[in-house]
Amino acid sequence: MRTPSTVVVTGGAGFIGSHTCVELLEHGYELIVVDDYSNSSPRVFSRIQRTAGRPVHAVHWVDIRDRHALSRVFDRHSVDAVVHFAAKKAVGESTRNPVEYYDTNVGGTTALLQVMQDHGVHDLVFSSSCSIYGDADRMPLRENSPARPTNPYAASKWTCERILSDVCRFRPEFRVLSLRYFNPVGAHPSGLLGEDPRGRPANLMPYLAQVAIGRRESLRVFGDDYPTPDGTGIRDYIHVMDVAAAHRLALDHVHEGTGMRVFNLGAGSGTSVLELVAAFGAACGRPIPYAVEGRRPGDVAALVADSSAVAREWGWQPKYGVAAMCRDALRFQRLNPFGYEDSADPVAVAAGADVQTPE
Ligand code: UD1
Q: Which residue's CA is minimally distant from atom 15 of ligand 1?
């Protein structure tokens, strides 16, 4: 069996997707990106090329639920494996519009699996989430800790994992690695790539970065009455570069095992909202203004990973700490105050790449 070389990356224009594209390009993979730009920009591809030193091979503007368009992508390229990022990921939004979350996250995954099956592609790295553990009583969380999703986003990821597990059980030619990320933050140290959400950021780190540069006035801290030392939510933040490195290792190893395997990806230490606010203030040299509001629906008190399984399996260890996460997120925000949309980067991908308009 050989290591996959041509890889479809769904959601490759997004935050984790774009950093993973760079890591994969730097390690010799050929990439076919599928994205609908619903929370990303096609301008990211020139940044990916500048960072990695070579372009992605092709880019297709496709909604992941559109299996006919997806099928045409697989008809055009000889695909060895898939990394599936494309999904919606805001907890609050998922409580307001659960149907959309199931439709995109679960419907998108089943469409992809059908197309993979039809084209004889069986190796998949799936973007899962620590949110599936929900309100857990014991930290750190191991892969066999019980799943108790508390919001539709988390439930949609858990549903996908159960589907993938069934697919692997009854179609043993499939090999799936599901990576349960804790809270990926930070940016590429070059400042060329980072998190560029559309509209008001739903997540803490990009919001902090926008407050730091004066694009927003003040952070809203969602709840200070959790059973944690300072009352604010504790999360296990992990640098996006470490997450990208784990995806490359996953692809290097996906063909080795059988069935479905699941790994946590976290740093193994918890940081509260107020601790992150303080760390960000230290990175930018002035305090970040904030006001405490009520809890956000669907949120839990604390989530901290035990990532020893992935360390044992592939020797993966996070390299970056919270200070580097804040420094890099801030650098990206300073260099790109309004993200990619406002930049001079061309929309078209660099020479040699194949840009598709909506199918
Ligand atoms: C959620 C998921 C996580 C997923 C991530 C994707 C859960 C429990 N976790 O992370 O699996 O990878 O989305 O984006 O579902 N906060 C504020 N003010 C803000 C924003 C957030 O105080 O403006 C607080 C939240 O209440 C939470 C912490 O900051 O305590 C982190 O929130 P966020 O960055 O949104 O990530 P999660 O919800 O933990």
A: 131
